[in-house]
């Protein structure tokens, strides 16, 4: 994985850079190797790199001053939240400042009347729901890592979760952000109101993976807890029949609060770990949750059960108590660590496909197992087609990591081939960077990079991520002259 070549002049100025940062953030700078080791990678642990220095600001003013100094002195900056990114989005640079936002961990205000809360980016996803629970509210997006991942990282990656099918991703649940640009300017986008006029700059920032600015405050939408929530645990003889059931439920006009799928390897791993009562004699398991008024939920449960039987289900359990519903979900929520018990390493992929292509894609993945000589366990958000195949490998065996990466690339190419996209919520980072050309042409990528240039003209924020080839901003704006003539000379130039 090639990253930008470290700038030797910057490396030579390390003592100067550390001293300047210490003056801005007293007591918040880590420059010794043993202290920086915990920041050398994020959740994509296959790639590691010590940063030049780590700085941990506590205030927006400190972030602005750090950014201003780095911008003026041409020092690269990599923002980092909790480090749970699975795409290498927070991978440090040898010549870059790693800007850790963990100290921004306060809930600033809760506005139940306007159904929103203002929080700092270091507040965990689950922490928001816990902070508003006494008022009968919760924060709808809930990644499986919600106990650890922070809202700032959710904004950077546009994270989803098991309830995103009905309630949307991060972008659908964030009303406003405060960001700091590379020149130290503090900008507010959106707010406590539903929408803003003009360009959708908020939509640009959410999912921008730290390439445009550093988020220092987030206004999130909070929702009243549903009156009733019940889950259905449905077993199928094949993954293809389970995928067909997913499509049939949505086609029937039913939008569950969550609809998750696991295949046999994941089912057994989760059951061994959590003891949730999952059936072991099925090839695929669906968890379908319905929420809302009790009468509506009871009616929809019956309809889902009927659809499941029509699609060939072999087991079906309906939660009768809140404790039973939670234990259904406990296995799914713990699936990733559970799979870690059956394989020394696993490579978690993230791609999204049209729901009706689920049976085909799952079948093709089984064929790929034989080609690459590696197993895959599937745990994913079936309702919105967001796949999370876990490719099992052993990094201690020569060549297995490379085979896992090749397997993952083939899965992502398949997602694009059937009309899907490279990522649903984990982001591009470094993991999918070199596959961007399978989904976008040169013109598409150039336009995306021009947007980055508008925010970060010198390319100092999180370079080496997302774009397979990062052109200099001046190169992107240059007109090419051939034979002494401009292209289309009759067009006016501005």
TrEMBL record:
Cofactor: FAD
Domain FAD-binding PCMH-type: 47-225
Keywords of the record: FAD, Flavoprotein, Oxidoreductase
Sample GO molecular function, one term: oxidoreductase activity
Pfam families in alphabetical order: FAD-oxidase_C (PF02913), FAD_binding_4 (PF01565)
Keyword Nucleotide-binding in record: no
Protein name as annotated: Glycolate oxidase
Organism, scientific name: Stella humosa
